[in-house]
Amino acid sequence: MKWFEKAAENGHAGAQYKYGVMHAKGLGGLRKDMKKALEWYLKSANQGDNRAQNTLGNMYDSGNGVPQDKKEALKWFRMAAENGNGLAQFNLAIMYDSGDGVEEDRNEALKWYKMAAKQGVAQAQFNIGKIYISGDGVPEDSEEAFKWLMMAAELGYANAQYYVGGMYMEGEGVPQDMEEAKKWLTEAAMQGNFDAMLRLEVLKGNY
């Protein structure tokens, strides 16, 4: 760990972030110390490390190791999101979607969801799909919804698998296909999705 500590003290942003993680989790023989973790995260974040910036956003959002401060969370999430961090883009989208710490803005939420989704954040893909299903702030579009939900389903996101199975079952946004419905509902059920289990029982009763 000596070289790691030295790299952090010499100003290496990546090492500073990882050293912060080690303090936060009590790794490498270190005592868990959120105050020291915060110090190293700030050093790293101020050098532009988007992982540290997103972590600071999470800390202020939840009040973990710092007083809860939604405006401070928003600041760090935005910084990390603008620096290309997919998880921060998702976190920022959530804040705009729910009006948590910022004025609710579905268009802004969708913008950041899409940026996160393109980086493979499955929950962002899922949330976009739900937005197009509900028509909340956008025109309803079941085909567009299916596209995004399928992306999340293919990444193993159980709720998306359930939705995709249901859409195949109902022929919503995609041609009806009971075999595909069964396949995706089974995938979701295997991950413990209770609604998918119920739908599979309906499928067995009807076909």
Plain-language structure description:
The chain has 3 domains: 1-47, no CATH class; 50-119, Serine Threonine Protein Phosphatase 5, Tetratricopeptide repeat (Alpha Horseshoe); 122-207, Tetratricopeptide repeat domain (Serine Threonine Protein Phosphatase 5, Tetratricopeptide repeat). It contains 12 helices and no strands. The chain has helices at residues 2-9, 13-25, 34-45, 50-62, 70-82, 86-98, 106-117, 122-134, 142-154, 158-170, 178-190, 194-206. The longest helix has 13 residues, at 13-25. It is mainly α.
Question: Quick recap of the structure?
Answer:
With 207 residues, this protein is an all-alpha fold.
Topology:
Elements: H1 2-9, H2 13-25, H3 34-45, H4 50-62, H5 70-82, H6 86-98, H7 106-117, H8 122-134, H9 142-154, H10 158-170, H11 178-190, H12 194-206
Helix pairs in contact: 1-2, 2-3, 3-4, 4-5, 5-6, 6-7, 7-8, 8-9, 9-10, 10-11, 10-12, 11-12
- Kindly state the percentage of residues in helix: over 70%
Order of helices and strands: HHHHHHHHHHHH
Strand content: under 5%
Find the count of extended strands (DSSP E, 2+ residues): 0
Derived structural class: mainly alpha
Q: Mean pLDDT across all residues, rounded?
A: 94
What is the multimeric organization of the chains shown? single chain
Q: How many independent structural domains?
A: 3
CATH C-level class of the largest domain: Mainly Alpha
